[in-house]
Amino acid sequence: MCSPLEARTVPAQMPPANALDYDYSSFFYSSSDDPFAILGPYNEWFDRAMPEGYYLFSQAMSTPPQGDIRLTEGLHQRQLRLVNLSSYNYLGLSARSEVIAAAKAALDAYGLGAAGSPILSGMMDIHVHLEEALARFKGKEAAMVFPTGYSTNVGLISGLMRAGDWVIADQNAHASIVDGAIMSKANVRFFRHNNPADLERKLKQTTGKKLVAIEGVYSMDGDVCPLPDLVAVAKKHGARIMLDEAHSAFVYGPNGRGIAELYGLENEVDIHIGTFSKALGGQGGYVAGSRHLYNYLKGFARSRVFSCALSPVVAAGVLKSLELAESEPQLRDQLWDNVRHIRGRFEEAGVDVGDSTSQIIPIMVRNDRRVFEICHKLLGAGVYLQPVIYPAVTKHRSRFRVSISAAHTREQLDEGAATLVRVLREERILL
Ligand code: PMP
After folding, report:
1. Which entry of 210, 247, 272, 408 is annotated as an active-site residue?
2. Residue 7 pLDDT greater than 60, yes or no
3. Model pTM score
4. Is 278 a catalytic residue?
5. Residue 327 annotated as catalytic
């Protein structure tokens, strides 16, 4: 028996915390005046999380990001040959011989980098060709190329919106939309995911300049936005609409022009955004719209004005990817065949894929510890599926995200799906 006082005494040695008792949110603030004070606690956690296997990020790939890869696995640093279900590369173009040849030719013609901002010396004729080809493809007056998709949203929103204006974004909007809105100093409101009625409620609470920011396909859930209803609500309240088609451009719509084309609303959407890092297997982003918008952003999109132009090597590769995406619609057919095939495998096995109807298929685990453990098991079984946790998704919504490409073979899809289903059953995620 111990006295009540003894019972309340804190043990001298607290049991060691598990690395998973913490996540990024634990290390955002510190009470010190020294900005470096947070580095010690964070690295203490990091040094525990790594060997315990709870930090499976940035595992290095040594092949192109296609269906069959070699990867240095993060826990034991073993080189593994794996079926890859994690990369974007939706049309399988990242390592197409024509794309590689175009990039090599550009390397010979221009050297490695643009060596300047596009507003100064960094604009090369290959950038002009890419912007013109994109504008033609999107059926818009002009298209502007940025070094990344991230800097596209940041530059566009902070270039256009000002303090006192309103950015009304879907609650699942990508970090680049959120960061652009914060940087603009406009008021920011989020409406419930894919919910036009809530968008309307939020729009009614605002006055002045309004920009509604939505995505074609959402990157973590793979669901498509209800564009007609969102556009109708935005128009009714006099808001401009920006549509980020990072995951839908070049794959959706009769001609691959995206969700706006699919719904016949290309002229109703004011600003079309996309990236080259997904379907085209390259890097960079674009804004397509009016010539007036182009001219204005040229001066005011600071992420482009104050940053070196996209490498001409990448610009040439992306231009070739775009040509192939246009001239080979069968790549989209192949992608959608593959998506149907693996969805069929998941449905047979009773895997819950949420509201996904796209090439992005979430596999919900809802527990950070389990998602890392299962990731290890999958690596051992020959499948690469990257764990997705906070802050990429909200807490307790951790998951795997399957990404399908036109370049996956049936064998890779069958092997990947069968292994995933077996492991999910063994781990009691799937009953
Ligand atoms: N927008 C969305 C919707 C995205 O999902 C992403 C990347 N995942 C980006 C923008 C940023 O694109 P990038 O990776 O090409 O910079």
Report:
1. 247
2. no
3. 0.94
4. yes
5. no
